[in-house]
Amino acid sequence: MALDARIPEGPIEKKWERRKYEMKLVNPANKRRHRLIVVGTGLAGGAAAASLGELGYEVLSFCFQDSPRRAHSIAAQGGINAAKNYQNDGDSVLRLFYDTVKGGDFRSREANVYRLAELSVNIIDQCAAQGVPFAREYGGELANRSFGGALVSRTFYARGQTGQQLLLGAYQALQRQVAAGTVRQFPRTEMLELVVVDGRARGIVVRDLVTGRISSYAADAVVLCTGGYGNVFYLSTNARGCNCTAIWRAYRKGAYFANPCYTQIHPTCIPRSGEYQSKLTLMSESLRNDGRVWVPKRKGDARSPDQIPDAERDYYLERIYPTYGNLAPRDIASRAAKNVCDEGRGVGPGGLGVYLDFRDAFARLGRKVLDERYGNLFEMYERITGDDPHDVPMRIYPAVHYTMGGLWVDYDLMTTIPGLFVGGEANFSDHGANRLGASALMQGLADGYFILPYTVGDYIAHGGLAKVDTSHAAFRDAEREVAARTDRFLSIRGTKPVDHFHRELGALLWNDCGMARTKASLEHALREIPPIREAFYRDLRVTGSGEELNNELERAGRVADYFELAELLCFDALHRNESAGGHFRVEYQTPDGEARRNDDEFAYVAAWEWKGPDTAPALHKEPLEFQYVPLQQRSYK
């Protein structure tokens, strides 16, 4: 079945203005009568809750962290894109749009991408007005640097802590509305079920993570801004608490899940150090502005890097992609690193690493300049590895980072369930098969500050919302479902902790559906996931009770959802007989090893509908049309 994204008519540069003009508005006095739920307090959720509260709606803001400012957006390091063209180097809204569509390997929706590029210029003004301490040039102008997939400098940054500073800006806007009484906060509270009444999203069921109390909240609309699902792989750059439960509960209630196989591998992660490591640490892509990536030319060369002369080094990104060099897009740089390591030229333990070397940059610019740009990143690397990047090259290796897939949304960011909106990484909308660096923060803030406040209001203004409170039978049924799941985990009383099963699932996914996938590997994964899940429900042991703070119980629910998501991810990857961006099927590559798309058969968004446990999901297609960026073989050479 073909899906209608409800994209406005007219030229692409007029679509968003036209849509805003066509929207119905809510009388300011009436906004106080409408309650909205926003789940998640990262850049998308925090900005959305603050903006909706400032408009006058009653907003309930939920997060499972102990404070909204602990959202994972705080971990973003390198920067945020915007087409300001302060450098006068040829940038424009149209070029940012082009780079993003091309970077996503022509698997994104043009209308959404253009709107994102268009709004990017407003985001910087908004954040600068909030006091976000962006880096500045000597004369006071905001500074820019480059990121992968672009030949211009359009990335605004605050050293290596851009996400933290932007999140603090959104957080203070949110706290202003808390003080004004328009927003109520519910920290340490996890959403465990979506409540649908008469086909519309009307509330959520949550668990208080401190007391274990299960309760419900009703609203006129629900906004999910709960991040991505990269932790399905167990080891990823995501915070340990990041999970898919909120969007997975919505999927099981009728929201379609789009492009789950589009998972991004980031090329500059600190390599894994041990068997029982629980997460990986990202080194910002911004480091590739001044660091050069290389490996020894000779297989098995175990000399220390300072003993390997330039003539015996392979700066492979500069060799293979001379136009973009070390700033090749993430999917391409990651596969290139895997290839040289597979050839036996990797460095460090197990040969699973490549060098990111700042020797030439220190000689050219001096230590003071580079420390001003990346000092906290250098310090972070030294604290984790014991090596000082001033003296020796960093060792990096690709790791799971971002998920381009997510709940399917239309142009208004509404799912197939009326009244359920999704922002930020939790939706699929803007990045296609690969996200360019510094675009996640841009999308989160565009959704939260500039899109959802309009589109949610339009939905409310259309009316037809019957009065519903938590006494409705749908809320009681949802609470019983949550309580039953909780009791089931506690009653298994097996012998193995949650992490045992999560680690086993993650290793299977990484090997069979990671940087490279094949028909055989995906079929193997789909055979192996059910036995691991059966063992989970037979031999899981959750200590403690449901009436207290219980991290094991929290993780049990999240991993249970990961088992189902893992199957959908592999199912989607198996059906897509092509390579595109972060989805690299080995059978489909060009003679020189690049991704080979099949535009005749797969130029569509794959949106999957839940059909019940142990039943194959139904595929719905949103055809993708490219009127402004013609389909072409993606090349960065």
From TrEMBL:
The keyword Thylakoid does not apply. Its cofactor is FAD. Keywords: Flavoprotein, Oxidoreductase. Pfam families: FAD_binding_2 (PF00890), Succ_DH_flav_C (PF02910). Residues 36-441 form the FAD-dependent oxidoreductase 2 FAD-binding domain. The keyword Flavoprotein applies. The gene is sdhA. This is Succinate dehydrogenase flavoprotein subunit. Residues 502-636 form the Fumarate reductase/succinate dehydrogenase flavoprotein-like C-terminal domain. The lineage of its organism: Bacteria, Pseudomonadati, Myxococcota, Myxococcia, Myxococcales. Coiled coil: none annotated. It comes from Anaeromyxobacter oryzae.
